[in-house]
Amino acid sequence: MIVEYITLTVYLILLLVLGAYFSRYNRDLSDFVRGGAQGTWWIVGMSMFISGISAFTFTGNASAAYEAGPTLLVIYLANVIGFALSGLFLGRWFRQTRALTLADIIRDRFGVAMEQFSAYIGVVMAPIAGSIQLWALAGFASSTFGFPLKTTIVVIGAIVVLYSTTGGKWAVMATDFVQGLIMMVITVVIAVLALDHIGGVGSFLSYFSDPQFADDFQFVKDSGQFPSDKFTWHWIIVIFVMQLYGQISLSSAGRFLVAKDGEAASRGSWFAMILMAGGSLIWFLPPMVSRFMYEAEVNAMDVDNPSNGSYAFIALKLLPDGLVGIMIAAMFAAKMSSMDTALNGQVGVIVRNVIPRLREKLGKPPLEPASEMWLCRALTVVLGAIVICYSLLWVLQKDIVLFDAYLAISSIIGIPLGFPMLAGLWVKRLWKGSYFLIIGACLLPSAYAFYDSSVNETTWTIQDRAMWILLFGCISTAICVVLSRLNNAEYEEKERVFFETMARPVNYVSEIGESFDGRQLIVMGNASLMLGGLLGLLILIPNPLSGRLICGAVAGTIALIGFLLRRRGQAVGTLDLPE
Protein backbone atom coordinates (compact mmCIF):
# COMPACT_ATOMS: atom_id res chain seq x y z
CA MET A 1 0.00 0.00 0.00
CA ILE A 2 3.01 2.28 0.37
CA VAL A 3 3.13 2.72 -3.43
CA GLU A 4 -0.50 3.85 -3.44
CA TYR A 5 0.20 6.43 -0.74
CA ILE A 6 3.17 7.78 -2.72
CA THR A 7 1.11 7.95 -5.93
CA LEU A 8 -1.74 9.76 -4.23
CA THR A 9 0.65 12.18 -2.51
CA VAL A 10 2.37 13.10 -5.78
CA TYR A 11 -1.03 13.71 -7.39
CA LEU A 12 -2.16 16.02 -4.58
CA ILE A 13 1.13 17.93 -4.73
CA LEU A 14 0.59 18.47 -8.46
CA LEU A 15 -2.78 20.09 -7.71
CA LEU A 16 -1.13 22.48 -5.26
CA VAL A 17 1.56 23.35 -7.81
CA LEU A 18 -1.11 24.18 -10.39
CA GLY A 19 -2.90 26.38 -7.86
CA ALA A 20 0.30 28.27 -7.10
CA TYR A 21 1.11 28.72 -10.79
CA PHE A 22 -2.30 30.12 -11.71
CA SER A 23 -2.17 32.66 -8.91
CA ARG A 24 -0.24 34.78 -11.45
CA TYR A 25 -3.39 35.10 -13.54
CA ASN A 26 -5.44 36.80 -10.82
CA ARG A 27 -5.48 40.57 -10.98
CA ASP A 28 -9.05 41.41 -10.00
CA LEU A 29 -12.37 39.91 -8.89
CA SER A 30 -13.37 38.90 -12.43
CA ASP A 31 -10.18 36.85 -12.77
CA PHE A 32 -10.67 35.17 -9.40
CA VAL A 33 -14.33 34.18 -9.80
CA ARG A 34 -14.69 33.59 -13.56
CA GLY A 35 -11.17 33.40 -14.95
CA GLY A 36 -11.58 36.81 -16.56
CA ALA A 37 -14.10 35.17 -18.95
CA GLN A 38 -11.15 33.84 -20.99
CA GLY A 39 -11.76 30.08 -20.75
CA THR A 40 -11.43 28.13 -24.00
CA TRP A 41 -14.06 25.52 -24.87
CA TRP A 42 -12.05 22.42 -23.98
CA ILE A 43 -11.05 23.57 -20.49
CA VAL A 44 -14.54 24.97 -19.83
CA GLY A 45 -16.17 21.74 -21.02
CA MET A 46 -13.97 19.52 -18.88
CA SER A 47 -14.54 21.76 -15.85
CA MET A 48 -18.33 21.63 -16.36
CA PHE A 49 -18.20 17.86 -16.74
CA ILE A 50 -16.04 17.08 -13.72
CA SER A 51 -17.81 19.57 -11.44
CA GLY A 52 -21.14 18.09 -12.55
CA ILE A 53 -20.35 14.78 -10.89
CA SER A 54 -19.50 14.10 -7.28
CA ALA A 55 -18.32 11.57 -4.75
CA PHE A 56 -21.81 10.05 -4.98
CA THR A 57 -20.99 8.77 -8.46
CA PHE A 58 -18.66 6.13 -7.04
CA THR A 59 -20.40 5.63 -3.69
CA GLY A 60 -24.13 6.27 -3.41
CA ASN A 61 -24.87 5.96 -7.12
CA ALA A 62 -22.58 2.94 -7.45
CA SER A 63 -24.56 1.44 -4.58
CA ALA A 64 -27.79 2.02 -6.53
CA ALA A 65 -26.27 0.30 -9.58
CA TYR A 66 -25.14 -2.62 -7.41
CA GLU A 67 -28.59 -3.08 -5.87
CA ALA A 68 -30.90 -2.13 -8.74
CA GLY A 69 -28.96 -2.26 -11.99
CA PRO A 70 -29.16 0.43 -14.68
CA THR A 71 -32.26 2.33 -13.46
CA LEU A 72 -30.21 5.18 -11.96
CA LEU A 73 -28.96 6.00 -15.46
CA VAL A 74 -32.03 8.22 -15.81
CA ILE A 75 -30.13 10.74 -13.66
CA TYR A 76 -27.24 10.81 -16.11
CA LEU A 77 -29.54 10.78 -19.14
CA ALA A 78 -31.01 14.01 -17.77
CA ASN A 79 -27.49 15.46 -17.47
CA VAL A 80 -26.67 14.47 -21.05
CA ILE A 81 -29.87 16.07 -22.38
CA GLY A 82 -29.17 19.18 -20.30
CA PHE A 83 -25.68 19.53 -21.80
CA ALA A 84 -27.11 18.97 -25.29
CA LEU A 85 -29.62 21.80 -24.81
CA SER A 86 -26.79 23.99 -23.52
CA GLY A 87 -24.81 23.16 -26.63
CA LEU A 88 -27.72 24.10 -28.84
CA PHE A 89 -28.55 27.47 -27.27
CA LEU A 90 -28.61 27.68 -23.45
CA GLY A 91 -24.83 27.93 -23.06
CA ARG A 92 -24.76 30.94 -25.36
CA TRP A 93 -27.61 32.62 -23.50
CA PHE A 94 -25.99 32.10 -20.10
CA ARG A 95 -22.58 33.44 -21.18
CA GLN A 96 -24.25 36.40 -22.87
CA THR A 97 -25.76 37.57 -19.58
CA ARG A 98 -22.25 39.01 -19.08
CA ALA A 99 -22.53 38.45 -15.33
CA LEU A 100 -19.69 37.77 -12.91
CA THR A 101 -21.75 35.66 -10.51
CA LEU A 102 -25.07 33.83 -10.42
CA ALA A 103 -26.38 36.47 -8.00
CA ASP A 104 -25.74 39.09 -10.70
CA ILE A 105 -28.12 37.21 -12.97
CA ILE A 106 -30.78 37.04 -10.26
CA ARG A 107 -30.46 40.79 -9.71
CA ASP A 108 -30.73 41.56 -13.41
CA ARG A 109 -33.75 39.28 -13.82
CA PHE A 110 -35.67 39.80 -10.57
CA GLY A 111 -34.18 42.72 -8.62
CA VAL A 112 -31.86 43.60 -5.75
CA ALA A 113 -34.00 42.09 -2.97
CA MET A 114 -33.96 38.71 -4.70
CA GLU A 115 -30.22 39.00 -5.31
CA GLN A 116 -29.57 39.55 -1.61
CA PHE A 117 -31.94 36.77 -0.53
CA SER A 118 -30.29 34.24 -2.84
CA ALA A 119 -26.82 35.34 -1.75
CA TYR A 120 -27.51 34.88 1.95
CA ILE A 121 -29.29 31.57 1.39
CA GLY A 122 -26.26 30.38 -0.56
CA VAL A 123 -23.92 31.34 2.26
CA VAL A 124 -25.94 29.09 4.57
CA MET A 125 -26.71 26.18 2.25
CA ALA A 126 -23.60 25.80 0.10
CA PRO A 127 -21.30 24.67 2.96
CA ILE A 128 -23.90 22.09 4.05
CA ALA A 129 -24.13 20.59 0.55
CA GLY A 130 -20.34 20.57 0.22
CA SER A 131 -19.89 18.96 3.61
CA ILE A 132 -22.18 16.05 2.72
CA GLN A 133 -20.09 15.27 -0.34
CA LEU A 134 -16.84 15.55 1.60
CA TRP A 135 -18.30 13.21 4.22
CA ALA A 136 -19.30 10.78 1.46
CA LEU A 137 -15.80 10.75 0.02
CA ALA A 138 -14.10 10.32 3.38
CA GLY A 139 -16.45 7.49 4.33
CA PHE A 140 -15.68 5.77 1.04
CA ALA A 141 -11.91 6.15 1.47
CA SER A 142 -12.06 5.03 5.08
CA SER A 143 -14.21 1.92 4.62
CA THR A 144 -12.54 0.77 1.41
CA PHE A 145 -8.88 1.68 1.79
CA GLY A 146 -8.54 1.97 5.54
CA PHE A 147 -7.78 5.70 5.53
CA PRO A 148 -8.56 7.42 8.85
CA LEU A 149 -12.02 8.96 8.39
CA LYS A 150 -11.53 12.31 10.13
CA THR A 151 -7.99 12.73 8.84
CA THR A 152 -9.18 12.20 5.26
CA ILE A 153 -11.81 14.91 5.67
CA VAL A 154 -9.29 17.42 6.98
CA VAL A 155 -6.51 16.64 4.48
CA ILE A 156 -8.66 16.63 1.33
CA GLY A 157 -10.61 19.68 2.47
CA ALA A 158 -7.41 21.57 3.24
CA ILE A 159 -5.85 20.79 -0.14
CA VAL A 160 -8.93 22.03 -2.01
CA VAL A 161 -8.94 25.20 0.07
CA LEU A 162 -5.22 25.81 -0.59
CA TYR A 163 -5.30 25.62 -4.37
CA SER A 164 -8.65 27.44 -4.58
CA THR A 165 -7.27 30.21 -2.38
CA THR A 166 -4.06 30.73 -4.33
CA GLY A 167 -5.25 30.25 -7.90
CA GLY A 168 -8.94 31.20 -7.88
CA LYS A 169 -11.07 30.12 -10.85
CA TRP A 170 -8.03 29.51 -13.04
CA ALA A 171 -6.75 26.95 -10.54
CA VAL A 172 -10.22 25.40 -10.26
CA MET A 173 -10.46 24.94 -14.03
CA ALA A 174 -6.89 23.68 -14.38
CA THR A 175 -7.20 21.14 -11.57
CA ASP A 176 -10.61 20.12 -12.91
CA PHE A 177 -8.98 19.36 -16.25
CA VAL A 178 -6.24 17.23 -14.70
CA GLN A 179 -8.71 15.45 -12.45
CA GLY A 180 -11.14 14.83 -15.31
CA LEU A 181 -8.33 13.44 -17.46
CA ILE A 182 -7.18 11.03 -14.76
CA MET A 183 -10.72 9.98 -13.87
CA MET A 184 -11.78 9.19 -17.42
CA VAL A 185 -8.63 7.21 -18.24
CA ILE A 186 -8.63 5.11 -15.08
CA THR A 187 -12.40 4.47 -15.09
CA VAL A 188 -12.17 3.26 -18.71
CA VAL A 189 -9.42 0.85 -17.61
CA ILE A 190 -11.52 -0.41 -14.68
CA ALA A 191 -14.58 -0.91 -16.90
CA VAL A 192 -12.58 -2.82 -19.52
CA LEU A 193 -10.97 -5.03 -16.87
CA ALA A 194 -14.34 -5.71 -15.23
CA LEU A 195 -15.93 -6.59 -18.56
CA ASP A 196 -13.04 -8.88 -19.44
CA HIS A 197 -13.18 -10.46 -15.98
CA ILE A 198 -16.85 -11.39 -16.34
CA GLY A 199 -16.30 -12.86 -19.80
CA GLY A 200 -17.22 -10.08 -22.19
CA VAL A 201 -20.35 -8.16 -23.15
CA GLY A 202 -22.44 -11.25 -23.88
CA SER A 203 -21.65 -12.86 -20.56
CA PHE A 204 -22.34 -9.58 -18.72
CA LEU A 205 -25.76 -9.16 -20.35
CA SER A 206 -26.68 -12.79 -19.65
CA TYR A 207 -26.78 -12.06 -15.92
CA PHE A 208 -29.74 -9.72 -16.44
CA SER A 209 -31.92 -12.73 -17.26
CA ASP A 210 -30.53 -14.86 -14.43
CA PRO A 211 -33.41 -15.56 -12.00
CA GLN A 212 -31.15 -14.50 -9.12
CA PHE A 213 -30.84 -10.95 -10.49
CA ALA A 214 -33.63 -10.52 -13.06
CA ASP A 215 -36.16 -8.86 -10.74
CA ASP A 216 -33.69 -6.43 -9.18
CA PHE A 217 -32.11 -5.54 -12.53
CA GLN A 218 -35.22 -4.92 -14.60
CA PHE A 219 -35.20 -1.27 -15.57
CA VAL A 220 -38.57 -0.43 -14.01
CA LYS A 221 -39.16 -1.94 -10.58
CA ASP A 222 -42.47 -2.98 -9.05
CA SER A 223 -44.08 -0.94 -6.31
CA GLY A 224 -42.84 -2.14 -2.93
CA GLN A 225 -39.83 -3.94 -4.40
CA PHE A 226 -37.40 -1.35 -3.01
CA PRO A 227 -37.74 0.90 0.05
CA SER A 228 -39.74 4.10 -0.55
CA ASP A 229 -40.80 2.76 -3.96
CA LYS A 230 -37.49 3.68 -5.49
CA PHE A 231 -36.85 2.83 -9.16
CA THR A 232 -40.55 2.56 -10.10
CA TRP A 233 -42.05 4.49 -13.05
CA HIS A 234 -43.12 7.21 -10.63
CA TRP A 235 -39.59 7.50 -9.24
CA ILE A 236 -37.99 7.43 -12.71
CA ILE A 237 -40.16 10.22 -14.13
CA VAL A 238 -39.90 12.52 -11.11
CA ILE A 239 -36.15 12.03 -10.61
CA PHE A 240 -35.52 12.60 -14.33
CA VAL A 241 -37.52 15.84 -14.33
CA MET A 242 -35.93 16.93 -11.05
CA GLN A 243 -32.43 16.40 -12.44
CA LEU A 244 -33.13 17.94 -15.84
CA TYR A 245 -34.84 21.04 -14.58
CA GLY A 246 -31.74 22.14 -12.71
CA GLN A 247 -29.77 21.85 -15.96
CA ILE A 248 -32.13 24.05 -17.99
CA SER A 249 -32.67 26.94 -15.60
CA LEU A 250 -30.75 30.07 -14.70
CA SER A 251 -29.36 28.12 -11.73
CA SER A 252 -26.83 26.45 -14.03
CA ALA A 253 -25.72 29.70 -15.68
CA GLY A 254 -22.75 30.20 -13.35
CA ARG A 255 -20.64 27.49 -14.94
CA PHE A 256 -20.81 29.20 -18.36
CA LEU A 257 -19.64 32.63 -17.21
CA VAL A 258 -15.97 31.56 -17.48
CA ALA A 259 -16.20 30.94 -21.23
CA LYS A 260 -14.71 33.39 -23.73
CA ASP A 261 -17.97 33.87 -25.57
CA GLY A 262 -21.16 32.09 -26.60
CA GLU A 263 -19.32 29.89 -29.09
CA ALA A 264 -16.89 28.62 -26.43
CA ALA A 265 -19.80 28.01 -24.04
CA SER A 266 -21.64 26.03 -26.71
CA ARG A 267 -18.65 23.91 -27.74
CA GLY A 268 -17.75 23.30 -24.12
CA SER A 269 -21.29 22.01 -23.52
CA TRP A 270 -21.03 19.53 -26.38
CA PHE A 271 -17.68 18.35 -25.03
CA ALA A 272 -19.16 17.90 -21.54
CA MET A 273 -22.13 16.03 -23.06
CA ILE A 274 -19.84 13.56 -24.82
CA LEU A 275 -17.83 12.97 -21.64
CA MET A 276 -20.97 12.55 -19.53
CA ALA A 277 -22.52 10.10 -22.00
CA GLY A 278 -19.33 8.06 -22.14
CA GLY A 279 -18.88 8.13 -18.39
CA SER A 280 -22.45 6.99 -17.78
CA LEU A 281 -21.80 3.87 -19.84
CA ILE A 282 -18.64 2.86 -17.97
CA TRP A 283 -18.99 4.08 -14.37
CA PHE A 284 -21.75 1.71 -13.32
CA LEU A 285 -20.60 -1.44 -15.07
CA PRO A 286 -18.04 -2.37 -12.34
CA PRO A 287 -20.57 -2.22 -9.44
CA MET A 288 -22.90 -4.52 -11.38
CA VAL A 289 -20.01 -6.93 -12.01
CA SER A 290 -19.39 -6.86 -8.25
CA ARG A 291 -23.01 -7.87 -7.68
CA PHE A 292 -22.96 -10.64 -10.29
CA MET A 293 -19.67 -12.23 -9.24
CA TYR A 294 -18.91 -11.19 -5.65
CA GLU A 295 -22.21 -10.43 -3.93
CA ALA A 296 -21.42 -12.47 -0.82
CA GLU A 297 -17.96 -10.93 -0.42
CA VAL A 298 -19.19 -7.36 -0.90
CA ASN A 299 -22.06 -7.83 1.55
CA ALA A 300 -19.62 -9.27 4.07
CA MET A 301 -17.56 -6.06 4.16
CA ASP A 302 -17.39 -4.71 7.71
CA VAL A 303 -18.97 -1.31 6.96
CA ASP A 304 -22.37 0.27 7.53
CA ASN A 305 -23.49 0.09 3.89
CA PRO A 306 -21.29 -2.40 1.98
CA SER A 307 -22.82 -1.63 -1.41
CA ASN A 308 -21.24 1.86 -1.23
CA GLY A 309 -17.88 0.15 -1.66
CA SER A 310 -18.92 -2.08 -4.58
CA TYR A 311 -17.03 0.02 -7.15
CA ALA A 312 -13.83 0.06 -5.13
CA PHE A 313 -14.14 -3.65 -4.35
CA ILE A 314 -13.93 -4.76 -7.98
CA ALA A 315 -11.30 -2.13 -8.81
CA LEU A 316 -9.03 -3.33 -5.99
CA LYS A 317 -9.46 -6.87 -7.23
CA LEU A 318 -8.52 -6.14 -10.84
CA LEU A 319 -6.09 -3.21 -10.93
CA PRO A 320 -2.35 -3.91 -10.86
CA ASP A 321 -0.24 -2.54 -8.02
CA GLY A 322 0.37 1.18 -8.42
CA LEU A 323 -2.82 2.02 -10.28
CA VAL A 324 -4.92 1.65 -7.14
CA GLY A 325 -3.47 4.98 -5.98
CA ILE A 326 -4.59 6.54 -9.28
CA MET A 327 -8.03 5.04 -8.80
CA ILE A 328 -8.20 6.60 -5.34
CA ALA A 329 -7.12 9.90 -6.90
CA ALA A 330 -9.98 9.57 -9.41
CA MET A 331 -12.44 9.05 -6.58
CA PHE A 332 -11.04 12.07 -4.75
CA ALA A 333 -11.27 14.09 -7.97
CA ALA A 334 -15.03 13.55 -8.12
CA LYS A 335 -15.43 15.27 -4.78
CA MET A 336 -12.70 17.87 -4.99
CA SER A 337 -13.99 19.23 -8.29
CA SER A 338 -17.45 19.96 -6.91
CA MET A 339 -16.08 21.39 -3.65
CA ASP A 340 -13.62 23.81 -5.31
CA THR A 341 -16.30 25.05 -7.73
CA ALA A 342 -18.74 25.64 -4.87
CA LEU A 343 -16.14 27.47 -2.77
CA ASN A 344 -15.05 29.71 -5.62
CA GLY A 345 -18.62 30.53 -6.67
CA GLN A 346 -19.81 31.31 -3.17
CA VAL A 347 -16.83 33.51 -2.38
CA GLY A 348 -17.52 35.43 -5.57
CA VAL A 349 -21.12 36.04 -4.52
CA ILE A 350 -20.08 37.33 -1.09
CA VAL A 351 -17.43 39.72 -2.41
CA ARG A 352 -19.36 40.82 -5.48
CA ASN A 353 -22.96 40.91 -4.20
CA VAL A 354 -23.08 40.95 -0.39
CA ILE A 355 -20.22 43.12 0.85
CA PRO A 356 -20.75 46.01 -1.64
CA ARG A 357 -24.38 46.34 -0.46
CA LEU A 358 -23.30 46.36 3.17
CA ARG A 359 -20.60 48.98 2.50
CA GLU A 360 -23.10 51.09 0.59
CA LYS A 361 -25.50 51.09 3.54
CA LEU A 362 -22.64 52.04 5.86
CA GLY A 363 -21.65 54.90 3.56
CA LYS A 364 -18.25 53.39 2.72
CA PRO A 365 -16.64 53.49 -0.76
CA PRO A 366 -16.23 50.37 -2.92
CA LEU A 367 -13.24 48.15 -2.24
CA GLU A 368 -10.11 48.45 -4.38
CA PRO A 369 -9.23 45.41 -6.58
CA ALA A 370 -6.32 44.47 -4.29
CA SER A 371 -8.62 44.47 -1.26
CA GLU A 372 -11.18 42.37 -3.12
CA MET A 373 -8.50 39.80 -3.93
CA TRP A 374 -7.36 39.64 -0.32
CA LEU A 375 -10.95 39.23 0.82
CA CYS A 376 -11.59 36.45 -1.73
CA ARG A 377 -8.68 34.45 -0.41
CA ALA A 378 -9.60 34.99 3.23
CA LEU A 379 -13.22 33.98 2.65
CA THR A 380 -12.17 30.86 0.73
CA VAL A 381 -10.26 29.74 3.82
CA VAL A 382 -13.19 30.53 6.12
CA LEU A 383 -15.80 28.75 4.00
CA GLY A 384 -13.50 25.79 3.48
CA ALA A 385 -13.03 25.47 7.24
CA ILE A 386 -16.82 25.54 7.73
CA VAL A 387 -17.27 22.76 5.17
CA ILE A 388 -14.65 20.63 6.92
CA CYS A 389 -16.28 21.20 10.33
CA TYR A 390 -19.72 20.29 9.01
CA SER A 391 -18.29 17.10 7.49
CA LEU A 392 -16.80 16.11 10.83
CA LEU A 393 -20.27 16.58 12.37
CA TRP A 394 -21.84 14.29 9.74
CA VAL A 395 -19.42 11.58 10.84
CA LEU A 396 -21.17 11.46 14.21
CA GLN A 397 -24.49 10.22 12.74
CA LYS A 398 -25.09 6.68 11.50
CA ASP A 399 -28.64 6.67 10.14
CA ILE A 400 -28.52 8.57 6.83
CA VAL A 401 -28.00 6.66 3.55
CA LEU A 402 -25.92 8.72 1.10
CA PHE A 403 -27.99 8.13 -2.03
CA ASP A 404 -31.23 8.96 -0.25
CA ALA A 405 -29.73 11.96 1.59
CA TYR A 406 -28.52 13.52 -1.65
CA LEU A 407 -31.89 13.16 -3.39
CA ALA A 408 -33.83 14.25 -0.29
CA ILE A 409 -31.89 17.51 0.06
CA SER A 410 -32.34 18.16 -3.66
CA SER A 411 -36.11 17.68 -3.42
CA ILE A 412 -36.76 19.44 -0.08
CA ILE A 413 -34.56 22.51 -0.64
CA GLY A 414 -33.09 22.46 -4.13
CA ILE A 415 -36.32 22.41 -6.15
CA PRO A 416 -38.12 25.19 -4.23
CA LEU A 417 -35.11 27.51 -4.41
CA GLY A 418 -34.47 26.71 -8.05
CA PHE A 419 -37.97 26.91 -9.49
CA PRO A 420 -38.00 30.73 -9.85
CA MET A 421 -34.78 30.38 -11.83
CA LEU A 422 -36.49 27.96 -14.19
CA ALA A 423 -39.52 30.20 -14.61
CA GLY A 424 -37.33 33.30 -14.96
CA LEU A 425 -35.54 31.81 -17.96
CA TRP A 426 -38.45 30.37 -19.91
CA VAL A 427 -41.22 32.88 -19.08
CA LYS A 428 -40.48 36.43 -20.20
CA ARG A 429 -43.30 38.18 -18.35
CA LEU A 430 -43.59 37.49 -14.62
CA TRP A 431 -44.96 39.50 -11.73
CA LYS A 432 -42.21 41.54 -10.04
CA GLY A 433 -42.73 39.60 -6.79
CA SER A 434 -42.65 36.22 -8.52
CA TYR A 435 -39.32 35.10 -7.04
CA PHE A 436 -40.62 35.01 -3.48
CA LEU A 437 -44.14 33.86 -4.38
CA ILE A 438 -42.87 30.83 -6.32
CA ILE A 439 -40.39 29.85 -3.61
CA GLY A 440 -43.09 30.17 -0.95
CA ALA A 441 -45.49 28.03 -2.97
CA CYS A 442 -42.84 25.36 -3.58
CA LEU A 443 -41.97 25.21 0.12
CA LEU A 444 -45.57 24.42 1.10
CA PRO A 445 -45.40 20.72 0.12
CA SER A 446 -42.06 20.35 1.92
CA ALA A 447 -43.51 21.96 5.06
CA TYR A 448 -46.63 19.82 4.93
CA ALA A 449 -44.60 16.66 4.36
CA PHE A 450 -42.53 17.47 7.43
CA TYR A 451 -45.68 18.11 9.48
CA ASP A 452 -47.40 14.98 8.20
CA SER A 453 -44.37 12.82 8.93
CA SER A 454 -43.96 14.23 12.45
CA VAL A 455 -47.61 14.27 13.56
CA ASN A 456 -49.25 11.49 11.58
CA GLU A 457 -46.09 9.43 11.06
CA THR A 458 -46.81 9.32 7.33
CA THR A 459 -43.88 8.30 5.13
CA TRP A 460 -43.32 10.68 2.23
CA THR A 461 -41.15 9.33 -0.56
CA ILE A 462 -38.69 11.59 -2.36
CA GLN A 463 -40.68 11.31 -5.57
CA ASP A 464 -44.00 12.20 -3.89
CA ARG A 465 -42.51 15.30 -2.29
CA ALA A 466 -40.76 16.36 -5.50
CA MET A 467 -43.90 15.83 -7.60
CA TRP A 468 -46.00 18.10 -5.38
CA ILE A 469 -43.27 20.75 -5.26
CA LEU A 470 -43.06 20.77 -9.06
CA LEU A 471 -46.85 21.00 -9.33
CA PHE A 472 -47.04 23.93 -6.90
CA GLY A 473 -44.21 25.60 -8.79
CA CYS A 474 -46.09 25.37 -12.09
CA ILE A 475 -49.31 26.69 -10.56
CA SER A 476 -47.57 29.61 -8.84
CA THR A 477 -45.72 30.46 -12.08
CA ALA A 478 -49.05 30.60 -13.93
CA ILE A 479 -50.39 32.94 -11.24
CA CYS A 480 -47.34 35.19 -11.64
CA VAL A 481 -47.94 35.38 -15.40
CA VAL A 482 -51.48 36.61 -14.73
CA LEU A 483 -50.24 39.11 -12.13
CA SER A 484 -47.59 40.45 -14.50
CA ARG A 485 -50.16 42.94 -15.83
CA LEU A 486 -49.68 44.78 -12.50
CA ASN A 487 -45.99 45.45 -13.23
CA ASN A 488 -44.94 49.07 -13.74
CA ALA A 489 -43.13 50.33 -16.82
CA GLU A 490 -39.75 50.33 -15.07
CA TYR A 491 -39.94 46.61 -14.26
CA GLU A 492 -41.14 45.76 -17.78
CA GLU A 493 -38.15 47.62 -19.18
CA LYS A 494 -35.88 45.65 -16.85
CA GLU A 495 -37.28 42.38 -18.21
CA ARG A 496 -36.85 43.54 -21.80
CA VAL A 497 -33.21 44.56 -21.26
CA PHE A 498 -32.39 41.26 -19.55
CA PHE A 499 -33.62 39.10 -22.44
CA GLU A 500 -32.14 41.40 -25.09
CA THR A 501 -28.73 41.26 -23.38
CA MET A 502 -28.90 37.48 -23.12
CA ALA A 503 -29.64 37.23 -26.86
CA ARG A 504 -26.81 39.58 -27.96
CA PRO A 505 -23.55 37.76 -28.89
CA VAL A 506 -20.39 38.60 -26.97
CA ASN A 507 -17.79 40.58 -28.91
CA TYR A 508 -14.68 39.13 -27.29
CA VAL A 509 -12.19 41.64 -28.66
CA SER A 510 -14.09 44.71 -27.48
CA GLU A 511 -15.56 43.29 -24.26
CA ILE A 512 -12.65 41.20 -22.93
CA GLY A 513 -9.65 41.93 -25.15
CA GLU A 514 -6.59 39.85 -24.33
CA SER A 515 -6.56 36.14 -25.05
CA PHE A 516 -4.69 33.31 -23.30
CA ASP A 517 -5.70 30.47 -25.63
CA GLY A 518 -2.19 29.31 -26.41
CA ARG A 519 -1.04 29.72 -22.82
CA GLN A 520 -3.87 27.51 -21.54
CA LEU A 521 -2.98 24.78 -24.05
CA ILE A 522 0.72 24.85 -23.22
CA VAL A 523 0.30 24.95 -19.44
CA MET A 524 -2.19 22.08 -19.38
CA GLY A 525 -0.11 20.19 -21.94
CA ASN A 526 2.95 20.52 -19.72
CA ALA A 527 0.97 19.41 -16.65
CA SER A 528 -0.36 16.36 -18.52
CA LEU A 529 3.10 15.48 -19.83
CA MET A 530 4.53 15.74 -16.32
CA LEU A 531 1.73 13.59 -14.93
CA GLY A 532 2.16 11.02 -17.70
CA GLY A 533 5.89 10.86 -17.05
CA LEU A 534 5.41 10.32 -13.34
CA LEU A 535 2.83 7.61 -13.98
CA GLY A 536 5.28 5.95 -16.34
CA LEU A 537 7.42 5.11 -13.30
CA LEU A 538 4.68 2.67 -12.27
CA ILE A 539 6.03 0.30 -14.92
CA LEU A 540 8.97 -0.32 -12.57
CA ILE A 541 6.70 -1.74 -9.86
CA PRO A 542 6.80 -5.56 -9.70
CA ASN A 543 3.69 -6.66 -11.60
CA PRO A 544 2.86 -9.35 -14.15
CA LEU A 545 3.50 -8.31 -17.74
CA SER A 546 -0.19 -7.51 -18.20
CA GLY A 547 -0.10 -5.20 -15.18
CA ARG A 548 2.96 -3.35 -16.49
CA LEU A 549 1.29 -2.94 -19.88
CA ILE A 550 -1.81 -1.47 -18.25
CA CYS A 551 0.30 1.00 -16.26
CA GLY A 552 2.14 1.92 -19.44
CA ALA A 553 -1.11 2.41 -21.36
CA VAL A 554 -2.50 4.76 -18.67
CA ALA A 555 0.71 6.80 -18.53
CA GLY A 556 1.06 6.85 -22.32
CA THR A 557 -2.52 8.03 -22.87
CA ILE A 558 -2.17 10.95 -20.50
CA ALA A 559 1.26 11.88 -21.90
CA LEU A 560 -0.07 11.72 -25.48
CA ILE A 561 -2.93 14.08 -24.62
CA GLY A 562 -0.39 16.41 -23.00
CA PHE A 563 1.82 16.30 -26.10
CA LEU A 564 -1.13 17.13 -28.40
CA LEU A 565 -2.22 20.01 -26.16
CA ARG A 566 1.29 21.47 -26.04
CA ARG A 567 1.74 21.13 -29.79
CA ARG A 568 -1.57 22.85 -30.45
CA GLY A 569 -0.65 25.60 -28.00
CA GLN A 570 2.63 26.27 -29.83
CA ALA A 571 0.71 26.50 -33.09
CA VAL A 572 -1.80 28.96 -31.65
CA GLY A 573 0.94 31.12 -30.13
CA THR A 574 1.16 32.64 -26.66
CA LEU A 575 0.88 36.00 -25.00
CA ASP A 576 3.01 37.16 -22.13
CA LEU A 577 1.41 36.66 -18.74
CA PRO A 578 0.04 39.80 -17.12
CA GLU A 579 2.45 41.63 -14.88
Structure description:
- There is one protein chain.
- The protein is mainly α and 579 residues long.
- The protein has 23 helices and no strands.
- Among the domains are: 415-513, no CATH class; 517-579.
Written as H for each helix and E for each strand, in order along the chain, the element string is HHHHHHHHHHHHHHHHHHHHHHH
Q: Largest beta sheet, briefly? A: none
The number of helices is 23
Computed over alpha carbons, the radius of gyration is 24 Å
Helix content: over 70%
Beta-strand residue fraction: under 5%
Keywords, separated by commas or semicolons:
about 75% helix, mainly alpha, single chain, about 575 residues, 23 helices
Describe what is shown at a glance:
The protein has 579 residues and is mainly α.
Give the secondary structure arrangement, pairings included.
Elements: H1 2-22, H2 29-34, H3 41-51, H4 60-68, H5 73-95, H6 102-110, H7 112-145, H8 149-198, H9 201-206, H10 214-217, H11 233-247, H12 262-283, H13 285-299, H14 310-318, H15 323-361, H16 369-394, H17 402-426, H18 434-455, H19 462-483, H20 489-503, H21 508-511, H22 517-536, H23 545-572
Helix pairs in contact: 1-8, 1-15, 3-8, 3-12, 4-13, 5-11, 5-12, 6-7, 7-8, 7-15, 7-16, 7-17, 8-12, 8-13, 8-15, 8-16, 8-23, 11-17, 11-19, 13-14, 15-16, 17-18, 17-19, 18-19, 22-23
